[in-house]
């Protein structure tokens, strides 16, 4: 399975939030906390569910408590894909 890219994650985040265009093309969101991006815990749970469905990577709810930015989420997902 191929790695999840930031663009792929943006698509998943938009889908989870029910929004078509939350992010501008090329916008750097890697190190912006999810809360500042407008994603609450419910939106992040939906994001994790979509990642599991699309990429086969499961992230436990308790692990999400320590994931605050898109970069951290990508690292977690891609680390599991590589394993």
Automatic annotation (TrEMBL):
Keyword set includes Phosphoprotein: yes
Keywords, alphabetical: Phosphopantetheine, Phosphoprotein
Pfam families per record: PP-binding (PF00550)
The keyword Phosphoprotein belongs to this UniProt entry's keyword annotation: yes
Chain ranges of the Carrier domain: 3-81
InterPro entries reported in the protein's UniProt record: ACP-like_sf, PP-bd_ACP, Ppantetheine_attach_site
Name of this chain's protein: Act minimal PKS acyl carrier protein
């Amino acid at each position: 399975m191929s790695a999840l890219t930031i663009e792929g994650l943006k698509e998943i985040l938009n889908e989870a939030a029910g929004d078509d265009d939350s992010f501008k093309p090329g916008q750097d969101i890697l190190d912006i906390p999810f809360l500042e991006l407008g994603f609450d815990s419910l939106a992040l749970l939906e994001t994790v569910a979509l990642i599991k469905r699309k990429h086969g990577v499961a992230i436990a709810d308790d692990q999400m408590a320590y994931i605050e930015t898109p970069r951290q989420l990508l690292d977690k997902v891609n680390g599991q894909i590589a394993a």
